[in-house]
Design a protein that fits this description.
Blueprint (H helix, E strand, L loop, with lengths): L1 H45 L3 E5 L3 E3 L1 H13 L3 E6 L5 E3 L4 E2 L3 E2 L10 E4 L12 H12 L3 E5 L2 H7 L7 E2 L5 H9 L3 E2 L4 E4 L2 E4 L5 H13 L1
Parallel strand pairs: 1-3, 1-7, 2-4, 3-6, 7-8, 8-12, 9-10
Antiparallel strand pairs: 4-5, 11-12
Length: 218
Amino acid sequence: MKGWVLILILIILISSGCAVQEIVLEGKNQQIQIIDSNQTQVTAAENMPKVLFIIAQNSFRDEELEKPKQILESADYGVDVASITNEHAIGMLGAVVKPDLAVKDVNISDYALIVVVGGSGAPQLANHPEVLNLLEQAKASNKKLAAICLGPMVLAKAGVLQGKQATVFKDSDSVSALESGGATFVDQKIVVDTGLVTANGPGASIEFGNELINLLKS
């Protein structure tokens, strides 16, 4: 009788051991699946189109950079910031930004979308040939373009708004600049045209960021 009891105990222990082993193996399989999933996510992020923001060296509008940039990064888009130099740029509200690169060093093939940020310093970007040349290259390469606040004035000066509908922070100079560049001024917060998004000021920053994602997906 005792022999049968010992045999029964051994059977139970062996069965339990198998069950434990199955659980451990199952756990290992789950771990492998999780790692594979993370690797897929990293690969997907690396393959997302990149966006370049151009800001004035002085007096860019802080939230017109910060909010759209956050929206794009939250959606896993790569974002770089360029200015006339890669020295610290100063926003109108006090933000200090270290650009990733100078405009003269930008390789247009690295980006799917070029965004000109506004602010009182933005029109000065049009005084720099490297900025105008970059925007012309973007247009010639069928890259998508966007600008906010006074940024559309720079697009107009570069000649990339010809035949487009666009908005801008409204004053006589900015509207005149758009029309001189061949654009039709539309007095709205956000204006979307083929391959182009423009917005009229800092109050449109969040909507502008969301429209940039729609533009990249189009």
